[in-house]
Each structure stands twice: as structure tokens, then as C-alpha cells.
């Protein structure tokens, strides 16, 4: 029997999302999430796709190694364990691939060393991705492990967008350039948006707004990324859950010289204690909307700053692309927060974009248009599926040799 199943691991800084898929028809067999890894209140939520049965397990899970072993245990209970002969490969999300990785790559020792070398530019993500790879390798040393990089989709950016305005020799020596992240999602969502419009990706220009806890925008011209809001690290660009996004780099010198903060303190401040959380003490958009509804001014200002930045990027990418066919909202906030979509597009009628309040308020699982029929630019909600995209790329790489 030919093995056709792919297990996908999407390790975040404190979470592990996973899906087991059968790639004959890309159907899901099981999926789940381990949250708050490293805290006392960790939770594993495991769902068996066929029956829809969900099991939850609460209690401390110390690190990503323990998380993956717990997930393996849950899968084994359903007869879907990692020891199954039906398992073809394990696909891993790796956030930073630098300039080196432009394609999905079968992991060997050299690949691991390179991902390790990139830790300084993805300190929240690459260590977790590496733990996932190492644990999976230890559990099934015989299986191909495939790394799918967040940065890969953005390697088509022209130098004018990818370079910072600093001495290119210095930039090259330290590999300082704009890499961009969430690429697997931007690739998938831009393609799905074209499909929603009944077009081939090569026929349309799309602005993708990936608004999760981390958030980034991209300008996709005829299927190729030409600009994106994240840079050397996932800190640049939009206001995020806990990250500041863009600021004058001199803020850092100022906090060091005048505020007496160390580089590590500033790094932690900007990555973990800024963004929505820094502004109002909450990083979850649901909580922020609830507070706004109760008249909370601090939450309202945080929301306004978030929207203002988002709008600036939408405007910038109109200019970068020249002609825009669609704006797609995706990820946790983009897919669920109707007020964010409404506020981000409000006032863009002159650019041809508008949101129909009624369509915008309808909840749904699939990709859908939320712009009025008369709008020149389609505005859409397009759910992302990084795990499906990673499974597809993993299968394309190792399935044919099986
Ligand atoms: N129903 C909802 N309404 C508004 N925001 C939501 C909703 N559900 C999730 N979110 C937002 O989505 C975020 C998580 O998005 P997600 O794409 O899962 O992020 P990540 O992959 O970075 O963990 C939450 O922090 C929250 O702000
Ligand atoms: C790169 C990045 O920001 O990822 P996430 O949104 O999963 O934190
Ligand atoms: Mg995410």
C-alpha cells in the first residue's frame, strides 16, 4: 500500500497547530491545537475529523517537545499514530528561511544548521520550528521531514522593495534585507481570491491582509509577491497583537540612551509588550471590541491606531500595484472581525473599494465577497489554510518519489 498521509506541524512561539491529511483528496483526518505552551494553563484541543469528536486536555505542557509528544499520543488513540505505515511525510512551517530557501525543502542536518543560524532574526519562531523538526525526526527517523518557509513566497520581491536604504555592502555582509513572512498564507489566499473571482492568479492583482496575532499585508501582482509589510524580522509593518510594527528606528536609540533600557529589554518591549497589548493591555480583538462597546477610550484608541496603520498599507499597495482587483482579509482577525474590515475600507470609495455592511456582517466558513456588486475593487474574506498549503507542498515534493 502506498502511504498518502501528511502530518503538518505549525509551531508558533507558544502554540502548536497541527493537521493530519490524506493527500489523495486532501481530506483532513484529525486536527488540533496546543495553546499556552510553557505556562501552567496549557491546553490541547484535538478533533477527529470524521466523527467531529473533540477531546481537551488541560495542564502544563513545558515545551514544544512535550507538546508534540502529547499530540502524537492523541493521534495514536484514534489509530492515527506517528508509527502508522500510511504516514508519508511530516511537513513543518518554518518562519525564517533567509535568502537560502526559496522552495519547500527536505530536512537534513545542513538544513537544520541553516534554520538554526537564522534564529537571531526570528527569535520567537525558528526555535519552536526546530524543536518540532527534531522531535518529529526522533519519533520517525525514516520519514521525510519537509520544511515550508514563510519567507519563500516573498523572494520574488524586486530589490527596490526588498532593500533598506543603507549601504548595500553592509546589508549584504549582515544579510539585512526585507524578507517578509506569512508567505504560505499570502500565497494560498491570493490564489483562492483569484478563484473566487473566477480568474487565474496570473490575471489579477490582490492586496492580502493577513491579520492574526502576527499581522502582515502583501501586494501580489499576477500571482507574484511584489511587496510585503514585514521585513528583516516579523516586527516591521502593521500594528499586531503584541508587536509594535513600524516605528522610527530612532525610538530604539532614544529608549536606550534616555530611558536607560538594554537592547534585550527593548527587543522584548517591541515584540512582546507592544501593539494592541501595549496600547490597551489586551491583544485579542474580541476583547478589544467588547471594551469599545462598553465605552472604553483606551481600547478605542488602540483600535484606531491599528486601523490607521492598516489603511496606510492598503493605500501604499494601491500605489505599488497601480491597479487592484481585490483586497482579501484573512487569519483570525481578518476572517472574524467585521468592524476591522468595515473600518479599514471606509473612505476608500475614491479608490474603488467599499464594503457592503450586510454582506460584511454575515458569518461563514468559506471565501466570500463583502463588497457591493458595483465596486471596482472586490473586497473579500478568504479563510487561510496554512496547514493545507504546507501539506500540498510537502506532498508535491515527496509524494511523487513514493
Ligand atoms: N471571533 C473573533 N472576532 C474577532 N477577533 C478574533 C476572533 N477570533 C479570533 N480573533 C483574533 O484572531 C487572533 C488569532 O488569530 P490567528 O490567525 O489564529 O493568529 P496566530 O496564528 O498568529 O496565532 C486572536 O488573537 C484574536 O485577536
Ligand atoms: C511570522 C509571524 O508573525 O507568525 P505568527 O503570526 O504565527 O506569529
Ligand atoms: Mg498564524
TrEMBL record:
InterPro entries: Ac/propionate_kinase, Aliphatic_acid_kin_short-chain, Aliphatic_acid_kinase_CS, ATPase_NBD. GO terms for biological process: acetate metabolic process; acetyl-CoA biosynthetic process. The record marks 182, 243 as: Transition state stabilizer. PROSITE patterns: ACETATE_KINASE_1, ACETATE_KINASE_2. One of its GO terms (molecular function) is magnesium ion binding. GO terms for cellular component: cytoplasm. It is found in: Cytoplasm. Pathway: Metabolic intermediate biosynthesis; acetyl-CoA biosynthesis; acetyl-CoA from acetate: step 1/2. Mg(2+) binds at residues 10, 386. It is an enzyme of class 2 (transferase). Keywords: ATP-binding, Cytoplasm, Kinase, Magnesium, Metal-binding, Nucleotide-binding, Transferase. Pfam families: Acetate_kinase (PF00871). Substrate binds at residue 93. The active site is at 150 (proton donor/acceptor). Gene3D superfamilies: 3.30.420.40. Catalyzes the formation of acetyl phosphate from acetate and ATP. Can also catalyze the reverse reaction. Belongs to the acetokinase family. NCBIfam families: ackA. This is Acetate kinase. The gene is ackA.
Amino acid at each position: 500500500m502506498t502511504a498518502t498521509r501528511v502530518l503538518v506541524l505549525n509551531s508558533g512561539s507558544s502554540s502548536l497547530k497541527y493537521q493530519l491529511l490524506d493527500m489523495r483528496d486532501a481530506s483532513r483526518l484529525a486536527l488540533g491545537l496546543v495553546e499556552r505552551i510553557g505556562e501552567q494553563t496549557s491546553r490541547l484541543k484535538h478533533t477527529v475529523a470524521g466523527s467531529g469528536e473533540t477531546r481537551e486536555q488541560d495542564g502544563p505542557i513545558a515545551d514544544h517537545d512535550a507538546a508534540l509528544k502529547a499530540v502524537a499520543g492523541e493521534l495514536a488513540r484514534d489509530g492515527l499514530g506517528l508509527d502508522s505505515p500510511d504516514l508519508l511525510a511530516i511537513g513543518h512551517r518554518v518562519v525564517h528561511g533567509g535568502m537560502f530557501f526559496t522552495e519547500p525543502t527536505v530536512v537534513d542536518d545542513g538544513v537544520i544548521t541553516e534554520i538554526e543560524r537564522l534564529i537571531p532574526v526570528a527569535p520567537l519562531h525558528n526555535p519552536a520550528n526546530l524543536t518540532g523538526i527534531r522531535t518529529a525526526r526522533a519519533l520517525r527517523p525514516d520519514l521525510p521531514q519537509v520544511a515550508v518557509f514563510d519567507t519563500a513566497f516573498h523572494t520574488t520581491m524586486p530589490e527596490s522593495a526588498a532593500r533598506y536604504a543603507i549601504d548595500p555592502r553592509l546589508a549584504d555582509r549582515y544579510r539585512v534585507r526585507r524578507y517578509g513572512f506569512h508567505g504560505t498564507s499570502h500565497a494560498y489566499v491570493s490564489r483562492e481570491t483569484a478563484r473566487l473571482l473566477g480568474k487565474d492568479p496570473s490575471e489579477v492583482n490582490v492586496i492580502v491582509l493577513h491579520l492574526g496575532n502576527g499581522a502582515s499585508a502583501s501586494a501580489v501582482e499576477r500571482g507574484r509577491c511584489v511587496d510585503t509589510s514585514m521585513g528583516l524580522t516579523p516586527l516591521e509593518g502593521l500594528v499586531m497583537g503584541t508587536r509594535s510594527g513600524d516605528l522610527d528606528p530612532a525610538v530604539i536609540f532614544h529608549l536606550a540612551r534616555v530611558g536607560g533600557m538594554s537592547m534585550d529589554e527593548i527587543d522584548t518591549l517591541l515584540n512582546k509588550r507592544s501593539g494592541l497589548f501595549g496600547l490597551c493591555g489586551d491583544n485579542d480583538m474580541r476583547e478589544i471590541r467588547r471594551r469599545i462597546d462598553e465605552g472604553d477610550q483606551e481600547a478605542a484608541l488602540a483600535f484606531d491606531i491599528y486601523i490607521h496603520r492598516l489603511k496606510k498599507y492598503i493605500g501604499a499597495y494601491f500605489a505599488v500595484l497601480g491597479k487592484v482587483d481585490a483586497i482579501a482579509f484573512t487569519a483570525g482577525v481578518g476572517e472574524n472581525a467585521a468592524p476591522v474590515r468595515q473600518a479599514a475600507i471606509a473612505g476608500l470609495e475614491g479608490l474603488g473599494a467599499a464594503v457592503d455592511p450586510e454582506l460584511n456582517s454575515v458569518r461563514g466558513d468559506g471565501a466570500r465577497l463583502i463588497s457591493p456588486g458595483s465596486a471596482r475593487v472586490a473586497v473579500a474574506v478568504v479563510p487561510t489554510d496554512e496547514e493545507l498549503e504546507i501539506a500540498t507542498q510537502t506532498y508535491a515534493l515527496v509524494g511523487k518519489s513514493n
